[in-house]
Amino acid sequence: TSPKTGLKTETPKPTSSPSPILTIETPIDEQVLDKRIVQVSGKVANSTSVIVSMNTQDIVIKTATDGSFATNVTLSEGVNYIEILAILEDGSIVSQTRTVTFTTETF
After folding, report:
1. How does the average pLDDT of the chain come out, rounded?
2. Residue 24: beta bridge partners?
3. Alpha helix (H) ranges present in the chain?
4. From CA 83, how far away is CA 40, in angstroms rounded?
5. How many Cβ atoms from other residues are within 10 Å of residue 54's Cβ?
6. 14-35 as b/e, with b when 16 or more CB fall inside 10 Å?
7. What is the pTM of this model?
8. Is 59 exposed, middle or buried, given 0-12, 13-18 or 19+ CB atoms closer than 10 A?
């Protein structure tokens, strides 16, 4: 009990659950592609849903039992920002962004 407020205080106890980690396998950040369709794939711990957000489209993906997910998105000409958001079991959100450039120019 706090002597100032009279309220009961407790010290937080660490939990044994793993920290939520979002791993994006594809695409690689800063990747330049000559194909309009790219796969977004990865794995997340403690999540049942992933949202892939790009330009004006949002794709909701239900993760597999091992936390893996994958979907295809269509790139616009030039620079594309792909945001991957994982909605964790406790309601919090973890996100990562990938920047991918689509061009038909040959190098």
Report:
1. 84
2. 42
3. none
4. 10
5. 21
6. eeeeeebebebeebeeeeeeee
7. 0.76
8. middle
Residue with tokens 């659950």: 17
Structure tokens at 17: 């659950």
Contact 52, 61 (CB under 8 A): yes
Please choose, from the candidates 54, 51, 57, the residue with its C-alpha nearest in 3D space to the C-alpha of residue 69: 51
Name the token pair of 2. 């706090």
Tell me the pLDDT band of 87, cut-offs 50, 70 and 90.
Answer: confident
Question: Which token pair is 25?
Answer: 């396998």
Question: Is the Cβ–Cβ distance between 101 and 33 less than 8 Å?
Answer: yes
Give the pLDDT of residue 10.
56
Q: List phi, psi (to 5°) of 58.
A: -125, 130
Kindly tell me if the per-residue pLDDT of 96 is higher than 50.
yes
Q: Across-strand partners of 84?
A: 52, 96
List pLDDT tens digits, range 41-79: 999 987 778 999 998 789 999 999 999 999 999 999 999
